[in-house]
Amino acid sequence: SNAIFISDVIKNYYLNTYSFKSFTTIYDTVEYDSAIDHPRKFMEDGICRLLIAGFISEGKGQRDAIEATKILHQKFKIELTVCGQGNEEYVNSLIPEQAKNYIFYKGYQNNLAPYRQNSDIALVCSRMEALGRVTIESMYYENLVIGADSGCTPFLIKDHETGFLYRSGDPSDLAKKIEFAIQNNDLIDEIKAKAKNYSIKEFARDISSQILNVYQDSLINK
């Protein structure tokens, strides 16, 4: 049999269990809104604004983001916005009362554009991302992306080139990577530019011809 996988991490998972006559990876396209810009300069107001967006659950890593923010709040002006639907009781239990003036839970947001435009860093803390759409969208909309070194994320982020990777499940390591970005903000514009170019080149293309080619090859070699 032949297979098309939507990410390398899914490919690796299935290849450990099944055998295929042929296989290839074709990432899904991501649709961008070219009307959305990102006018904010990195920490332009002296505050490092973090964003984590996605379904609320233990596996999505909101705890990493919240704990790292609490660590950094002792040294820097920093804020974290958490967006997503899911277990609200869980995420609220992670935010102590004294941290609610710099960690904000906004629930589900149909339109993330205003949050992306007002953020410096997008955190992708999921332990097992299958595709990494949030990573790619964050790159395109010019948020610096810091992601966990697990799942699909390390296939998408080249560490110190298109973003930063931290040890999954380790808030202190995440805090170190955020602190590095804060203290080396002269490097950030170049990293964001490379990431945006990557997101356009690899994920804003028409994949129908690639899929058709795979289908035709499978018929020829049947």
TrEMBL record:
This is Glycosyl transferase. The keyword RNA-binding does not apply. It comes from Bifidobacterium olomucense. Residues 51-197 form the Glycosyl transferase family domain. It comes from the Bacteria. GO terms for molecular function: hexosyltransferase activity. Signal peptide: none annotated. Keywords: Transferase. The keyword Calcium does not apply. Pfam families: Glycos_transf_1 (PF00534). Transmembrane segments: none annotated. CDD domains: GT4_PimA-like. The lineage of its organism: Bacteria, Bacillati, Actinomycetota, Actinomycetes, Bifidobacteriales.
